[in-house]
Amino acid sequence: MNSHNARPLPWRDQMRRAAEPRTQEIAWLAPPEVIALTSAHYLHAIRWLYECERLYIPNLLLSGATQVTTDDYFHTLRQQISERVSAPTVYGVLRADHRVEVCGFNAAGDVCHLIDHQTDRRMATYHRTTHERLHTQNLGAGALVFRLRYVAQHERWKISRFIQTLPDHYIATRDDKLTFERLQQYPFIGRDA
Prior knowledge:
Blueprint: E1 16-19, E2 26-29, H1 32-55, H2 58-68, H3 71-85, E3 90-103, E4 111-127, E5 133-151, E6 156-165, H4 168-173, E7 188-189
Antiparallel strand pairs: 1-2, 3-4, 3-7, 4-5, 5-6
Helix pairs in contact: 1-2, 2-3
């Protein structure tokens, strides 16, 4: 049991411990179906946030953000949305291909880290009222680390916090010999037509 969820999660007894070979730290591994669910909920959140950003619907973003975000990420998003309402006449939308890696669960099984390996990243700039695309900037590849938290009340994994952008060195030279279980998906979210 943990402070966020009133009862133990169904997969709590299926969590396994393993030592991460490079650091010898203990990592908790979740069952494959939990990893798949975590990835699916994250990608749904990214898709939903992208569509709200692309169509520039601040009220929908404000009202629906609690369904896909929580904690620090929700508060930051809410602040950005309220600042944007009185912002200049342009706004930007990040487009990318996503490959996600779920790892680093806590012992309770309700918090984990997710690395979003983004390729073909582009920032499209739109006019706020006409929604006409004004400019697109190529940003290359990147890897972003998020904390996700399972909210039992909503039966969903939510983006809880942005942790960091990993350095290019990590992206280019990292080997895949981690003990963390992962699910890799390549959805095409927000692609230009």
